[in-house]
Amino acid sequence: MKKNIRRNIDLALTAVGIAVVFSAIILGTSLNVRAQMPIAIIGVLLMQAGIWGLSAKFIPNQRRYTNLREEGDRMLDLIRELNSAAIAKEIGTEDAKRFQRTLEAMHSSVLKMSELASDEADNASKSAPTG
């Protein structure tokens, strides 16, 4: 939800910046250069704020389940390891021990994810077993 809000704010800032720059150009006939230049600079700054996504500074990203995300990232690493071990087993450069160890690590990771699934970051650090 907040991601969509930030994206819409960034798009709006860019659009407003473009509109301000165009208005400075269009109104250039009625304004002198000294009045036209600051308006154009403000428009360019608004466009840059939208392009660089500066709304994220005002609406920060607040992840709640960071420990679950970290375990999910670990699972992705294990998937890569399992693939590598399966290929090595298939071509005969290794036996099935590495494949089996990785598979067991994946099972324990799934169990850990089930424990972390509803724990927010501050709760999981208190209740997660160490070791």
Structure at a glance:
The protein is mainly alpha-helical and 131 residues long. It has helices at 2-26, 33-51, 55-58, 66-91, 97-116, 121-127. It has two domains: 2-58; 66-127.
The tally of helices reads 6
**Mean pLDDT over the full residue set:** 82
Count of separate structural domains: 2
Fraction of residues in H or I helices = over 70%
What is the 3D shape?
A: elongated
* Strands, count: 0
Taking Cα atoms only, what radius of gyration do you get, to the nearest Å? Answer: 26 Å
For the record, give the distance between the C-alpha atoms at the N and C termini, rounded to a whole number.
36 Å
Structural class: mainly alpha
Low-confidence stretches: none
SSE run: HHHHHH
Instruction: Sketch the major β-sheet.
Output: none
Beta content: under 5%
